[in-house]
Predict the 3D structure of the following.
Amino acid sequence: MNRSKYTSSKRHTLLASLVAAFALSLGAAPIQAQTSIIVAQASDIRSFDPQRVGNTISEAIAINIYDYLIMRDGNGVPQPSLATAWEPAGDTAWRLWLRDDVLWHDGERFTAEDVKFTLERAARDPESVYLSTFEIINEVEIVNDFEVIIHTDEPDPILLSRINRTGAGIMPAHHADRLPELAVSPIGTGPYRFVEWSRDEYVHLEAFPDHWRGAPHYDELTFRVIPEASTRVNELITGGVHIATNVPPADAPNINNSGVAVVLPHATGRAMVLQVNTAADSVTGDPRVREAIDLSIDNQLLIDVLHDGYGTPTRLRISQGVVAPEELYGQYLYDPERAAELLLEAGYSFGEARITLQGTVSRYPQDSQTAELLAVMLESVGFTVELELLEWGVFQDRVRFKNVENLALDGLGNSMLDAWFALRGYICEGEYITATSWCNEEFTELTNAGAVEINQELRTEQLNRAFLIMAEERPEIGLIDLMNLAGVSTEIDWTPRPDELLWIFDATPAN
Protein backbone atom coordinates (compact mmCIF):
# COMPACT_ATOMS: atom_id res chain seq x y z
CA MET A 1 0.00 0.00 0.00
CA ASN A 2 3.06 2.25 -0.02
CA ARG A 3 2.25 3.56 3.42
CA SER A 4 4.72 5.52 5.56
CA LYS A 5 4.22 5.88 9.32
CA TYR A 6 6.12 8.32 11.48
CA THR A 7 6.48 8.20 15.21
CA SER A 8 6.02 11.31 17.30
CA SER A 9 9.68 11.35 18.32
CA LYS A 10 10.79 11.15 14.71
CA ARG A 11 8.54 14.01 13.75
CA HIS A 12 9.87 16.24 16.47
CA THR A 13 13.39 15.94 15.08
CA LEU A 14 12.14 17.37 11.79
CA LEU A 15 13.20 20.97 12.25
CA ALA A 16 16.75 19.90 13.11
CA SER A 17 16.98 17.58 10.14
CA LEU A 18 15.71 20.11 7.60
CA VAL A 19 19.20 21.51 7.18
CA ALA A 20 20.59 18.15 6.04
CA ALA A 21 21.50 18.06 2.35
CA PHE A 22 20.52 15.28 0.04
CA ALA A 23 23.33 13.83 -2.04
CA LEU A 24 23.00 11.39 -4.89
CA SER A 25 25.37 11.07 -7.81
CA LEU A 26 24.22 9.45 -11.02
CA GLY A 27 26.28 9.26 -14.17
CA ALA A 28 24.58 11.35 -16.85
CA ALA A 29 25.47 11.71 -20.47
CA PRO A 30 25.93 15.36 -21.44
CA ILE A 31 23.05 16.92 -23.30
CA GLN A 32 23.57 17.85 -26.93
CA ALA A 33 23.76 21.62 -26.93
CA GLN A 34 21.69 23.50 -29.51
CA THR A 35 19.81 20.44 -30.80
CA SER A 36 17.81 19.11 -27.83
CA ILE A 37 16.27 20.13 -24.55
CA ILE A 38 15.79 17.75 -21.65
CA VAL A 39 13.39 18.61 -18.83
CA ALA A 40 13.28 16.80 -15.47
CA GLN A 41 9.89 16.43 -13.78
CA ALA A 42 8.95 14.68 -10.56
CA SER A 43 6.10 12.64 -12.05
CA ASP A 44 5.04 11.16 -15.34
CA ILE A 45 2.20 12.20 -17.59
CA ARG A 46 -0.98 10.22 -16.92
CA SER A 47 -2.49 10.41 -20.40
CA PHE A 48 -2.22 12.46 -23.58
CA ASP A 49 -5.99 12.91 -23.72
CA PRO A 50 -6.43 16.53 -22.55
CA GLN A 51 -9.95 15.92 -21.24
CA ARG A 52 -9.38 12.65 -19.42
CA VAL A 53 -6.55 13.67 -17.09
CA GLY A 54 -6.89 16.38 -14.49
CA ASN A 55 -3.40 17.40 -13.47
CA THR A 56 -0.98 20.11 -14.49
CA ILE A 57 2.00 17.77 -14.90
CA SER A 58 0.24 16.09 -17.83
CA GLU A 59 -0.84 19.37 -19.37
CA ALA A 60 2.63 20.84 -18.87
CA ILE A 61 3.92 18.30 -21.38
CA ALA A 62 0.85 18.11 -23.62
CA ILE A 63 0.83 21.86 -24.31
CA ASN A 64 3.79 21.26 -26.60
CA ILE A 65 1.71 18.80 -28.64
CA TYR A 66 -1.77 20.40 -28.62
CA ASP A 67 -2.69 24.04 -29.23
CA TYR A 68 -5.38 26.06 -27.44
CA LEU A 69 -7.73 28.41 -29.26
CA ILE A 70 -6.41 31.20 -27.05
CA MET A 71 -3.21 30.95 -25.05
CA ARG A 72 -1.97 33.13 -22.23
CA ASP A 73 1.51 34.54 -22.56
CA GLY A 74 4.16 34.39 -19.84
CA ASN A 75 2.45 37.27 -18.04
CA GLY A 76 -0.97 35.62 -18.07
CA VAL A 77 -2.40 37.83 -20.84
CA PRO A 78 -4.61 35.99 -23.41
CA GLN A 79 -3.12 35.92 -26.91
CA PRO A 80 -4.37 34.55 -30.24
CA SER A 81 -3.44 30.96 -30.96
CA LEU A 82 -5.63 28.74 -33.16
CA ALA A 83 -8.19 31.54 -32.90
CA THR A 84 -7.02 34.82 -34.42
CA ALA A 85 -9.81 37.03 -33.07
CA TRP A 86 -13.06 36.86 -31.08
CA GLU A 87 -16.05 38.96 -30.08
CA PRO A 88 -19.39 38.56 -28.26
CA ALA A 89 -22.23 37.37 -30.47
CA GLY A 90 -25.11 38.14 -28.12
CA ASP A 91 -25.58 37.50 -24.40
CA THR A 92 -24.88 33.76 -24.63
CA ALA A 93 -22.48 33.38 -27.53
CA TRP A 94 -18.95 34.19 -28.70
CA ARG A 95 -17.76 34.29 -32.30
CA LEU A 96 -14.20 33.12 -33.03
CA TRP A 97 -12.22 33.35 -36.24
CA LEU A 98 -9.70 30.54 -36.79
CA ARG A 99 -6.32 30.29 -38.46
CA ASP A 100 -6.44 28.86 -41.97
CA ASP A 101 -2.80 27.73 -42.15
CA VAL A 102 -2.66 25.06 -39.45
CA LEU A 103 -1.72 21.43 -40.05
CA TRP A 104 -2.12 18.43 -37.81
CA HIS A 105 0.99 16.35 -37.21
CA ASP A 106 -0.36 13.77 -39.68
CA GLY A 107 -0.60 16.40 -42.42
CA GLU A 108 -4.37 16.94 -42.31
CA ARG A 109 -5.76 20.48 -42.22
CA PHE A 110 -7.15 22.02 -39.03
CA THR A 111 -10.73 23.34 -39.38
CA ALA A 112 -13.76 24.37 -37.36
CA GLU A 113 -14.79 20.70 -37.16
CA ASP A 114 -11.91 20.12 -34.75
CA VAL A 115 -13.08 22.94 -32.47
CA LYS A 116 -16.64 21.65 -32.45
CA PHE A 117 -15.51 18.10 -31.73
CA THR A 118 -13.18 19.10 -28.88
CA LEU A 119 -15.37 21.57 -27.01
CA GLU A 120 -18.59 19.58 -27.32
CA ARG A 121 -16.75 16.48 -26.12
CA ALA A 122 -15.43 18.42 -23.11
CA ALA A 123 -18.96 19.67 -22.39
CA ARG A 124 -20.82 16.36 -22.79
CA ASP A 125 -18.54 13.40 -22.23
CA PRO A 126 -19.30 12.01 -18.74
CA GLU A 127 -15.68 10.86 -18.50
CA SER A 128 -14.31 14.35 -19.09
CA VAL A 129 -12.61 15.42 -15.86
CA TYR A 130 -13.39 19.02 -16.83
CA LEU A 131 -17.10 18.48 -17.35
CA SER A 132 -18.01 21.03 -14.66
CA THR A 133 -15.85 23.62 -16.42
CA PHE A 134 -17.14 23.11 -19.97
CA GLU A 135 -20.72 21.89 -19.53
CA ILE A 136 -22.04 25.45 -19.86
CA ILE A 137 -21.21 25.15 -23.58
CA ASN A 138 -24.43 24.20 -25.35
CA GLU A 139 -23.21 24.02 -28.92
CA VAL A 140 -20.34 24.98 -31.19
CA GLU A 141 -21.91 26.29 -34.38
CA ILE A 142 -19.78 26.01 -37.52
CA VAL A 143 -20.19 29.12 -39.67
CA ASN A 144 -17.55 27.99 -42.14
CA ASP A 145 -14.27 26.10 -42.04
CA PHE A 146 -12.55 28.91 -40.13
CA GLU A 147 -15.30 30.55 -38.10
CA VAL A 148 -17.33 29.24 -35.18
CA ILE A 149 -19.87 30.54 -32.69
CA ILE A 150 -19.74 29.04 -29.19
CA HIS A 151 -23.21 29.04 -27.64
CA THR A 152 -23.61 28.77 -23.86
CA ASP A 153 -26.65 27.82 -21.80
CA GLU A 154 -26.39 31.06 -19.84
CA PRO A 155 -24.35 34.26 -19.97
CA ASP A 156 -20.77 33.26 -19.25
CA PRO A 157 -18.38 35.94 -17.97
CA ILE A 158 -15.36 33.64 -18.22
CA LEU A 159 -15.83 31.62 -21.40
CA LEU A 160 -12.57 32.88 -22.88
CA SER A 161 -10.77 31.72 -19.73
CA ARG A 162 -12.36 28.29 -20.02
CA ILE A 163 -10.99 27.75 -23.52
CA ASN A 164 -7.41 28.81 -22.70
CA ARG A 165 -6.83 26.49 -19.79
CA THR A 166 -6.01 22.89 -18.99
CA GLY A 167 -8.40 20.54 -20.77
CA ALA A 168 -8.96 22.82 -23.77
CA GLY A 169 -6.24 21.42 -26.03
CA ILE A 170 -7.82 21.01 -29.47
CA MET A 171 -8.01 17.41 -30.66
CA PRO A 172 -8.35 16.02 -34.20
CA ALA A 173 -11.94 15.34 -35.23
CA HIS A 174 -10.76 13.09 -38.06
CA HIS A 175 -9.42 10.69 -35.42
CA ALA A 176 -12.56 10.65 -33.27
CA ASP A 177 -12.83 6.88 -33.69
CA ARG A 178 -9.39 6.18 -32.18
CA LEU A 179 -9.28 8.31 -29.04
CA PRO A 180 -7.94 5.52 -26.79
CA GLU A 181 -4.97 5.23 -29.12
CA LEU A 182 -4.44 9.01 -29.10
CA ALA A 183 -4.30 8.90 -25.30
CA VAL A 184 -0.97 7.08 -25.58
CA SER A 185 0.18 8.22 -29.03
CA PRO A 186 -1.21 11.71 -29.61
CA ILE A 187 -1.62 13.80 -32.77
CA GLY A 188 -1.80 17.55 -32.31
CA THR A 189 -1.08 20.86 -34.04
CA GLY A 190 1.56 22.03 -31.55
CA PRO A 191 5.24 22.86 -32.13
CA TYR A 192 6.37 19.34 -31.17
CA ARG A 193 5.05 15.99 -32.30
CA PHE A 194 4.99 12.74 -30.38
CA VAL A 195 7.73 10.13 -30.81
CA GLU A 196 7.82 7.82 -27.79
CA TRP A 197 6.51 7.40 -24.25
CA SER A 198 8.24 5.03 -21.84
CA ARG A 199 6.01 5.09 -18.77
CA ASP A 200 7.60 6.46 -15.61
CA GLU A 201 10.82 7.10 -17.54
CA TYR A 202 10.47 9.66 -20.32
CA VAL A 203 8.41 11.28 -23.07
CA HIS A 204 10.29 12.03 -26.27
CA LEU A 205 9.07 14.60 -28.82
CA GLU A 206 10.52 16.07 -32.00
CA ALA A 207 10.06 19.47 -33.62
CA PHE A 208 7.17 19.81 -36.07
CA PRO A 209 8.73 21.79 -38.95
CA ASP A 210 5.34 22.80 -40.41
CA HIS A 211 4.01 24.36 -37.21
CA TRP A 212 2.10 27.56 -37.93
CA ARG A 213 4.32 29.57 -35.55
CA GLY A 214 7.41 28.30 -37.35
CA ALA A 215 9.78 25.54 -36.32
CA PRO A 216 11.00 25.49 -32.69
CA HIS A 217 14.63 26.37 -31.96
CA TYR A 218 15.34 22.84 -30.69
CA ASP A 219 14.92 19.71 -32.77
CA GLU A 220 14.18 17.35 -29.88
CA LEU A 221 12.41 17.66 -26.55
CA THR A 222 12.55 15.03 -23.81
CA PHE A 223 10.74 15.02 -20.46
CA ARG A 224 12.47 12.73 -17.97
CA VAL A 225 10.74 11.42 -14.87
CA ILE A 226 13.05 11.94 -11.87
CA PRO A 227 11.05 11.70 -8.63
CA GLU A 228 13.87 12.61 -6.22
CA ALA A 229 14.48 16.35 -6.03
CA SER A 230 18.12 15.83 -5.12
CA THR A 231 18.61 13.73 -8.25
CA ARG A 232 16.96 16.35 -10.45
CA VAL A 233 19.32 18.97 -9.02
CA ASN A 234 22.35 16.74 -9.52
CA GLU A 235 21.34 16.03 -13.11
CA LEU A 236 21.03 19.75 -13.76
CA ILE A 237 24.46 20.54 -12.34
CA THR A 238 26.19 17.65 -14.07
CA GLY A 239 24.63 18.34 -17.47
CA GLY A 240 21.98 15.61 -17.63
CA VAL A 241 19.08 18.02 -18.07
CA HIS A 242 18.48 21.62 -19.12
CA ILE A 243 15.52 22.31 -16.82
CA ALA A 244 14.72 20.86 -13.39
CA THR A 245 11.29 21.55 -11.92
CA ASN A 246 10.33 21.78 -8.23
CA VAL A 247 13.81 22.63 -6.95
CA PRO A 248 13.99 22.63 -3.11
CA PRO A 249 14.93 26.10 -1.78
CA ALA A 250 17.84 24.57 0.17
CA ASP A 251 19.43 23.59 -3.15
CA ALA A 252 19.19 27.04 -4.70
CA PRO A 253 22.65 28.26 -3.53
CA ASN A 254 24.30 25.10 -4.84
CA ILE A 255 22.72 25.60 -8.27
CA ASN A 256 23.41 29.33 -8.42
CA ASN A 257 27.04 28.76 -7.46
CA SER A 258 27.55 25.95 -9.95
CA GLY A 259 28.32 28.19 -12.91
CA VAL A 260 26.21 25.97 -15.18
CA ALA A 261 22.65 26.74 -14.03
CA VAL A 262 20.54 29.28 -12.15
CA VAL A 263 17.38 29.10 -10.05
CA LEU A 264 14.37 31.10 -11.24
CA PRO A 265 11.57 31.69 -8.68
CA HIS A 266 8.10 32.05 -10.18
CA ALA A 267 4.48 32.27 -9.09
CA THR A 268 2.39 29.19 -9.81
CA GLY A 269 -1.26 30.00 -9.20
CA ARG A 270 -1.20 26.89 -6.99
CA ALA A 271 -2.19 26.78 -3.34
CA MET A 272 -1.24 24.02 -0.91
CA VAL A 273 -4.34 23.12 1.07
CA LEU A 274 -5.74 20.52 3.41
CA GLN A 275 -8.94 18.90 2.20
CA VAL A 276 -11.05 17.80 5.15
CA ASN A 277 -13.54 14.96 5.52
CA THR A 278 -16.55 16.61 7.14
CA ALA A 279 -18.70 13.46 7.39
CA ALA A 280 -20.47 13.12 10.71
CA ASP A 281 -18.82 9.77 11.49
CA SER A 282 -15.33 11.24 11.00
CA VAL A 283 -13.29 12.84 13.80
CA THR A 284 -13.01 15.86 11.53
CA GLY A 285 -16.79 15.97 11.13
CA ASP A 286 -16.92 18.11 14.28
CA PRO A 287 -16.50 21.79 13.30
CA ARG A 288 -14.58 22.38 16.54
CA VAL A 289 -12.03 19.79 15.49
CA ARG A 290 -11.67 21.39 12.07
CA GLU A 291 -11.15 24.79 13.69
CA ALA A 292 -8.56 23.27 16.03
CA ILE A 293 -6.68 21.94 13.01
CA ASP A 294 -6.72 25.37 11.39
CA LEU A 295 -5.53 27.14 14.54
CA SER A 296 -2.72 24.65 15.14
CA ILE A 297 -0.97 25.54 11.85
CA ASP A 298 1.68 28.25 11.62
CA ASN A 299 1.49 28.99 7.89
CA GLN A 300 4.40 31.40 7.91
CA LEU A 301 6.65 28.88 9.61
CA LEU A 302 5.89 26.40 6.81
CA ILE A 303 6.95 29.04 4.30
CA ASP A 304 10.08 30.13 6.15
CA VAL A 305 11.38 26.70 7.12
CA LEU A 306 10.47 24.67 4.05
CA HIS A 307 10.38 27.23 1.24
CA ASP A 308 13.04 29.74 2.31
CA GLY A 309 10.39 32.45 2.49
CA TYR A 310 9.02 31.87 -1.02
CA GLY A 311 5.24 31.91 -0.71
CA THR A 312 2.28 33.68 0.87
CA PRO A 313 -0.03 32.42 3.65
CA THR A 314 -3.56 31.76 2.50
CA ARG A 315 -6.63 30.47 4.29
CA LEU A 316 -8.19 28.82 1.23
CA ARG A 317 -7.36 27.91 -2.35
CA ILE A 318 -6.46 31.49 -3.20
CA SER A 319 -3.45 32.52 -5.22
CA GLN A 320 -1.99 35.78 -6.46
CA GLY A 321 -4.32 37.41 -9.00
CA VAL A 322 -7.53 35.77 -7.71
CA VAL A 323 -10.06 38.23 -6.29
CA ALA A 324 -11.06 37.14 -2.76
CA PRO A 325 -11.80 38.66 0.67
CA GLU A 326 -8.72 40.44 2.06
CA GLU A 327 -8.88 38.56 5.36
CA LEU A 328 -8.38 35.24 3.59
CA TYR A 329 -5.14 35.98 1.74
CA GLY A 330 -1.80 36.88 3.27
CA GLN A 331 -3.19 36.05 6.72
CA TYR A 332 -3.69 33.00 8.91
CA LEU A 333 -5.20 32.12 12.32
CA TYR A 334 -2.38 30.45 14.27
CA ASP A 335 -3.48 30.07 17.93
CA PRO A 336 -2.29 26.74 19.40
CA GLU A 337 -3.66 27.47 22.89
CA ARG A 338 -7.16 27.96 21.53
CA ALA A 339 -6.73 24.87 19.33
CA ALA A 340 -6.02 22.74 22.42
CA GLU A 341 -9.08 24.20 24.14
CA LEU A 342 -11.29 23.37 21.16
CA LEU A 343 -10.18 19.75 21.24
CA LEU A 344 -11.14 19.54 24.91
CA GLU A 345 -14.50 21.17 24.16
CA ALA A 346 -15.05 18.54 21.46
CA GLY A 347 -14.49 15.82 24.11
CA TYR A 348 -10.90 14.79 23.33
CA SER A 349 -8.20 14.67 25.96
CA PHE A 350 -4.61 15.18 24.82
CA GLY A 351 -3.73 12.47 22.30
CA GLU A 352 -7.26 11.06 21.98
CA ALA A 353 -8.20 12.75 18.69
CA ARG A 354 -6.67 10.33 16.19
CA ILE A 355 -6.54 11.52 12.60
CA THR A 356 -4.88 10.40 9.36
CA LEU A 357 -3.00 12.93 7.26
CA GLN A 358 -2.52 11.80 3.66
CA GLY A 359 -0.02 13.44 1.33
CA THR A 360 2.21 13.01 -1.69
CA VAL A 361 5.89 12.29 -2.26
CA SER A 362 7.81 14.57 -4.65
CA ARG A 363 4.73 15.84 -6.50
CA TYR A 364 4.85 19.38 -5.09
CA PRO A 365 7.76 21.37 -3.68
CA GLN A 366 8.54 20.05 -0.20
CA ASP A 367 5.26 18.13 -0.06
CA SER A 368 6.29 15.24 2.19
CA GLN A 369 8.29 17.60 4.42
CA THR A 370 5.22 19.83 4.68
CA ALA A 371 3.13 16.86 5.79
CA GLU A 372 5.71 15.95 8.42
CA LEU A 373 5.84 19.47 9.83
CA LEU A 374 2.05 19.69 9.85
CA ALA A 375 1.98 16.48 11.89
CA VAL A 376 4.34 18.10 14.40
CA MET A 377 2.06 21.12 14.73
CA LEU A 378 -1.08 19.02 15.07
CA GLU A 379 0.43 16.75 17.70
CA SER A 380 1.65 19.72 19.71
CA VAL A 381 -1.97 20.76 20.43
CA GLY A 382 -3.25 17.27 21.27
CA PHE A 383 -3.87 15.30 18.06
CA THR A 384 -2.41 11.89 17.39
CA VAL A 385 -1.50 11.80 13.70
CA GLU A 386 -0.93 8.87 11.40
CA LEU A 387 0.94 10.09 8.35
CA GLU A 388 0.39 8.35 5.03
CA LEU A 389 2.67 9.45 2.20
CA LEU A 390 1.81 8.15 -1.26
CA GLU A 391 3.32 8.27 -4.71
CA TRP A 392 1.44 10.72 -6.92
CA GLY A 393 -0.31 8.11 -9.03
CA VAL A 394 -1.54 6.22 -5.97
CA PHE A 395 -2.71 9.45 -4.33
CA GLN A 396 -4.71 10.35 -7.46
CA ASP A 397 -6.25 6.91 -7.75
CA ARG A 398 -7.17 6.47 -4.11
CA VAL A 399 -7.43 9.84 -2.37
CA ARG A 400 -7.85 12.84 -4.67
CA PHE A 401 -11.56 13.50 -5.38
CA LYS A 402 -12.31 10.11 -3.81
CA ASN A 403 -11.47 9.18 -0.23
CA VAL A 404 -9.98 11.62 2.23
CA GLU A 405 -9.82 9.73 5.51
CA ASN A 406 -9.49 12.88 7.63
CA LEU A 407 -7.01 15.29 6.04
CA ALA A 408 -5.36 15.27 2.61
CA LEU A 409 -2.53 17.62 1.72
CA ASP A 410 -2.87 18.62 -1.92
CA GLY A 411 -1.74 21.35 -4.28
CA LEU A 412 -4.64 22.86 -6.22
CA GLY A 413 -3.95 25.09 -9.20
CA ASN A 414 -6.10 27.76 -10.79
CA SER A 415 -5.42 27.84 -14.50
CA MET A 416 -8.27 30.31 -15.03
CA LEU A 417 -7.02 32.69 -12.29
CA ASP A 418 -10.65 33.09 -11.28
CA ALA A 419 -12.45 32.89 -7.93
CA TRP A 420 -15.27 30.73 -9.30
CA PHE A 421 -12.76 28.15 -10.48
CA ALA A 422 -11.32 27.91 -6.97
CA LEU A 423 -14.78 27.34 -5.49
CA ARG A 424 -16.67 25.27 -8.03
CA GLY A 425 -15.43 21.86 -6.88
CA TYR A 426 -17.15 22.28 -3.51
CA ILE A 427 -20.69 22.92 -4.70
CA CYS A 428 -23.13 20.22 -3.61
CA GLU A 429 -22.75 18.34 -6.90
CA GLY A 430 -19.06 19.22 -7.28
CA GLU A 431 -16.01 17.02 -7.74
CA TYR A 432 -14.88 17.27 -4.09
CA ILE A 433 -18.15 16.18 -2.50
CA THR A 434 -17.09 12.52 -2.38
CA ALA A 435 -13.78 13.39 -0.74
CA THR A 436 -15.06 15.95 1.79
CA SER A 437 -18.76 15.05 2.26
CA TRP A 438 -19.46 18.78 2.45
CA CYS A 439 -22.59 20.33 0.96
CA ASN A 440 -23.77 23.84 1.81
CA GLU A 441 -26.80 25.05 -0.13
CA GLU A 442 -26.09 28.77 0.32
CA PHE A 443 -22.48 28.29 -0.80
CA THR A 444 -23.69 26.33 -3.84
CA GLU A 445 -26.25 28.99 -4.76
CA LEU A 446 -23.69 31.80 -4.51
CA THR A 447 -21.04 29.92 -6.46
CA ASN A 448 -23.45 28.95 -9.22
CA ALA A 449 -24.69 32.54 -9.42
CA GLY A 450 -21.13 33.78 -9.75
CA ALA A 451 -20.57 31.42 -12.65
CA VAL A 452 -23.02 33.33 -14.87
CA GLU A 453 -23.12 36.86 -13.44
CA ILE A 454 -21.93 39.43 -16.00
CA ASN A 455 -21.92 42.37 -13.57
CA GLN A 456 -18.40 42.09 -12.16
CA GLU A 457 -19.13 44.00 -8.94
CA LEU A 458 -22.09 41.77 -8.09
CA ARG A 459 -20.14 38.68 -9.14
CA THR A 460 -17.27 39.55 -6.79
CA GLU A 461 -19.74 40.05 -3.95
CA GLN A 462 -21.35 36.65 -4.57
CA LEU A 463 -18.07 34.78 -4.75
CA ASN A 464 -16.58 36.61 -1.75
CA ARG A 465 -19.56 35.50 0.35
CA ALA A 466 -19.01 31.94 -0.85
CA PHE A 467 -15.33 32.11 0.16
CA LEU A 468 -16.30 33.29 3.65
CA ILE A 469 -18.77 30.41 4.11
CA MET A 470 -16.06 27.93 3.18
CA ALA A 471 -13.57 29.59 5.53
CA GLU A 472 -16.08 29.28 8.36
CA GLU A 473 -17.02 25.62 7.76
CA ARG A 474 -13.54 24.42 6.66
CA PRO A 475 -14.01 21.59 4.16
CA GLU A 476 -10.71 23.03 3.01
CA ILE A 477 -7.97 24.70 5.04
CA GLY A 478 -5.50 26.82 3.12
CA LEU A 479 -1.78 26.80 3.80
CA ILE A 480 0.47 28.44 1.18
CA ASP A 481 0.15 30.22 -2.13
CA LEU A 482 3.23 28.58 -3.59
CA MET A 483 6.11 30.09 -5.41
CA ASN A 484 8.08 27.50 -7.28
CA LEU A 485 11.75 27.26 -8.13
CA ALA A 486 12.96 26.02 -11.49
CA GLY A 487 16.60 25.24 -12.19
CA VAL A 488 17.60 26.31 -15.70
CA SER A 489 20.84 25.64 -17.56
CA THR A 490 22.88 28.67 -18.59
CA GLU A 491 22.98 27.12 -22.08
CA ILE A 492 19.39 28.18 -22.73
CA ASP A 493 17.23 31.26 -22.36
CA TRP A 494 13.88 30.20 -20.95
CA THR A 495 11.51 31.69 -18.35
CA PRO A 496 9.07 29.61 -16.23
CA ARG A 497 5.39 30.49 -16.64
CA PRO A 498 2.93 31.27 -13.82
CA ASP A 499 0.56 28.57 -15.11
CA GLU A 500 3.33 25.91 -14.69
CA LEU A 501 3.10 24.85 -18.33
CA LEU A 502 6.46 23.77 -19.68
CA TRP A 503 6.12 25.65 -22.94
CA ILE A 504 9.41 25.02 -24.71
CA PHE A 505 8.70 26.82 -27.99
CA ASP A 506 9.97 30.00 -26.30
CA ALA A 507 13.31 28.42 -25.35
CA THR A 508 16.31 29.71 -27.28
CA PRO A 509 20.08 29.21 -27.05
CA ALA A 510 21.67 31.57 -24.55
CA ASN A 511 23.82 34.34 -25.97
About this structure: Residues 1-33 have pLDDT under 50 and may be disordered. The longest strand covers residues 261-276. The chain has three domains: 8-18+267-483, 36-47+186-265+485-509, 66-182. Residues 456-473 form the longest helix (18 residues).
